[in-house]
Design goal:
Helix content: under 10%
Mean pLDDT: 82
Number of strands: 13
Length: 236
């Protein structure tokens, strides 16, 4: 049968192809048109504690890193919002989780900004070789037992600072799930600019799940709850 060689060839091509990111968010699917101030209708994110602005590249003096849209983390209500990934990230023991996103200064000549990013775990979780990623550089790896939540506050970001990568990575010592949140710590309607959030998960067997598999991994995990603010990784 000719079908079998064809399937074998397809399998070989699939195996050789690079695995896609488990999750990628460039905010391109949010809307078509102009910027939307105090935007709260994200497909994959929930906004709390204030507001954020959905910005079309080229408007308000802001140029997104890639594509047409990005997010001003300090909305237009004088209360900066917290942007939380609505579906928690599920993982198994031995999985490697790598979360990277890109942030620039406010690009509009205003004062320096600060922002924070958070991880809230569904239960006590052992993190092996955990590293914060700050402005393109990873910190020294450290293993943490029974972590529940933690956050990292960046250094002040000048308005002219170009996009740089932030985030964290670790190997899971046990199965669990985490919720990712990112926010500005100001409230002057002008904040750092967020774009291109990427989450990669490599299983203990070395396989990166494709998006359909990722959806199965997170099925069954509801929203983990409100993110604890300003807490460093701490024992349960």
């Amino acid at each position: 049968m000719r079908l079998l060689p064809a399937l074998a060839a397809l399998a070989a091509i699939t195996a050789a192809a690079p695995a896609a990111a488990a999750f990628f968010e460039g905010f391109e699917g949010e809307t078509a048109g102009s910027s939307i101030l105090d935007y709260a209708s994200f497909a994959n994110w929930t906004v709390t504690n204030g507001t954020v602005d959905l910005i079309r590249s080229g408007e308000y003096g802001i140029i997104c890193r890639t594509g047409s849209y990005c997010v001003d983390l300090d909305g237009s209500s004088f209360a900066a919002g917290t942007l939380t990934l609505t579906t928690p990230i599920a993982f198994a023991a031995g999985d490697f989780i790598d979360i990277v996103f890109w942030v620039s200064g406010n690009q509009r000549g205003w004062s320096d900004d600060r922002f924070a990013w958070y991880a809230l775990f569904a239960g006590p979780t052992n993190l092996i070789d955990f590293q914060w990623l700050v402005a393109g550089s990873y910190g020294s790896p450290v293993s943490i037992d029974n972590v529940i939540s933690g956050d990292q506050l960046s250094d002040p970001i000048p308005f002219s600072a170009p996009f740089a990568s932030y985030g964290f990575r670790f190997t899971a010592g046990n199965a669990g799930a985490l919720t990712l949140s990112i926010d500005d710590t100001g409230g002057d309607q002008v904040g750092p600019v967020l774009d291109d959030v990427e989450i990669n998960l490599r299983s203990a067997g070395g396989v990166v799940p494709e998006p359909a598999t990722w959806a199965m991994l997170v099925a069954g995990f509801g929203l983990v709850g409100a993110v604890a603010r300003r807490r460093r990784p701490a024992a349960a």
